Amino acid sequence: MAQYLPLLPEIVFTILFLIYFVIGLFIKNRQITGIMVMTISLITSFILFRADGTAFKNMFVADNFSQSLKLVFLLSLFLCTLISMRYEKIKDSIFYEYSLLMLLSTLAMMLIVSSRDLIPLFLSVEFMSLCLYLLSGFIISDLKSNEASLKYYVLGSFASAIFLFGIAAIYGVAGTTTFYGISDFLKNNSGITIYHYIGTVAIITALAFKAGCAPFHQWSPDVYEGAPTTITAFMSVGPKAAALGALGRVIFESFSFSPQLWLASLVFVALLTMATGNILALRQNNIKRLLAYSSIAHAGYVMLAVIACSQEGLNSIVFYMIIYAFMNIGAFAVVLALPDGESIEGYRGISFLNPSLSLCMLAFLFSLAGIPPFGGFIAKFLVFKSVIHSGYIWVAVIGILFSILSAYYYLRIAVKMFFSNAQEQIQSKYLIPSNLKVAIALNAGLILVTGVIPGIIM
Length: 458
Known about the structure:
Blueprint: H1 8-23, H2 30-47, E1 53-55, E2 60-62, H3 64-84, H4 95-114, H5 118-136, H6 143-174, H7 179-188, H8 194-210, H9 219-226, H10 229-254, H11 263-281, H12 287-308, H13 311-337, H14 350-353, H15 355-369, H16 375-389, H17 393-419, H18 434-452
Antiparallel strand pairs: 1-2
Helix pairs in contact: 1-2, 1-4, 2-3, 2-4, 3-4, 3-10, 3-13, 4-5, 4-10, 5-6, 5-10, 6-8, 6-9, 8-10, 9-10, 9-12, 10-12, 10-13, 11-12, 11-17, 12-13, 12-16, 12-17, 13-15, 13-16, 13-18, 15-17, 15-18, 16-17, 16-18
Transmembrane segments: 6-27, 34-51, 71-87, 94-113, 119-140, 152-174, 194-214, 226-248, 260-281, 290-311, 317-338, 350-371, 391-411, 438-457
Enzyme class: translocase
Family: Belongs to the complex I subunit 2 family.
């Protein structure tokens, strides 16, 4: 049984999922359903770091990197379930199925970051993607949601084909799909052929697509805008962390001896992603689209840590994604809390109507922009530090410049909140559901604490 100890979190999560799968059929109250899902998330989180080691001939690993990213997925599941509990667009009659899909996609993400073989990695990515295709089109009567799901499915299938092609190319030259096998082959064979380049670039392309990196980002704004807001919040954190974590592990453990295979393409993708996300976000008036382009830009920052190809880079990916979960889901919770939260005009003068909500949103925006003393500043600092230590100073400088540029579109919202008159239609008193109040306060507190005392999660 000791050989299965590294899989302990996945086994416990699956058992709890099956219990929920049966019991949930008889529970009609969505509050109880939501509490059950959050309980599964909490129980699994508590046993995460009790598992350590490898299984299945080193194809599965439970190390600090994978377990920390699993914590991000479980936090994301917990917080997104919390903000979904009174979300009216998800009807009571389908909340059970909605929760099942979120649980299954979380399990898939956990398997992704523990994979040390391209075949299980591909299968786990497809498992996650199938759940997300369904979630993004979950509101059947909403045409935008249907369109988002269809676009995501078509483009995602294309990326899957590229991924499979890349695996075939690598297997053709290395004769193995395990990370350590590929690494040993590249270490002992100096000759690089066109098939090495094709395979490596195809794998990077597929994982960059799943992370929403440019130039494979076209699906991201439409899907984020069309999907229900709670699902958009869920998709903006977990799947992105899973894809970037997998990319970081593949590069670090398989291709670190042959940087000529991936360095130029990764630097190009990272710079283009930061440029695309930040520049296109400047003109957005829809907050969900703005946060979609913002998430593209943040994927570019995390990609810098992948380029570093070091343990320091992997650690900074983990820290960044934990903070990103808090600040991004917190921002989406504010979008849900306001009557017209999806439009930038809906934020006019809300500081006069609800000062505490405005201050929390300001904290999320400052953190996303990387302004101290919030966690986002520390996260960006660690990423830039890792890439500088790896010798790519000019890349870090460009990243810092784009980070400064991003402050413009985040502060646009802050200006609307604090320096504009409130709209007449929201001047009347409105009530924020208690679950959103808890989520907003919790996330705001965490990004402040992690910014002031980053050592608590480092």
